[in-house]
Write a structure and sequence with these properties.
Blueprint (H helix, E strand, L loop, with lengths): L1 H24 L14 H5 L3 H54 L5
Helix pairs in contact: 1-3
């Protein structure tokens, strides 16, 4: 489970950085200056804005899916470790009481 969360965390960071860069590359609708110094529609062509918008939407959707998955994995791993800790403390307390009351002795 640890390897899966590590891989998803690395992918999550990459998706975050790519989404930030794509959002900064987009120009506003009022033909303002983009971050690269000009309108992205005139620099890359008129249909590129639609492609960049679709890629940004895909990255945002991927961001949400990975964020929810990581949250679920962390919650599951915490509850599983808590359950294992409770089971080990119950079994250790049972073994310590079995030896002190003499009921288990022959």
């Amino acid at each position: 489970m640890g390897i899966l969360t590590t891989i998803l965390t690395v992918v999550f960071v990459i998706v975050c950085v790519l989404a930030i860069l794509l959002i900064l590359l987009q120009s506003d609708k009022s033909s303002g200056m983009g971050i690269i110094g000009g309108s992205s529609q005139s620099t890359f062509g008129s249909s590129t804005a639609d492609v960049v918008t679709k890629i940004t939407g895909f990255l945002v959707a991927l961001f949400l899916v990975i964020a929810l998955t990581l949250g679920g994995l962390y919650t599951y791993s915490k509850s599983a470790s808590r359950k294992a800790l409770e089971e080990s403390s119950v079994s250790s307390s049972e073994s310590s009481t079995a030896g002190t009351d003499g009921s288990e002795r022959e």
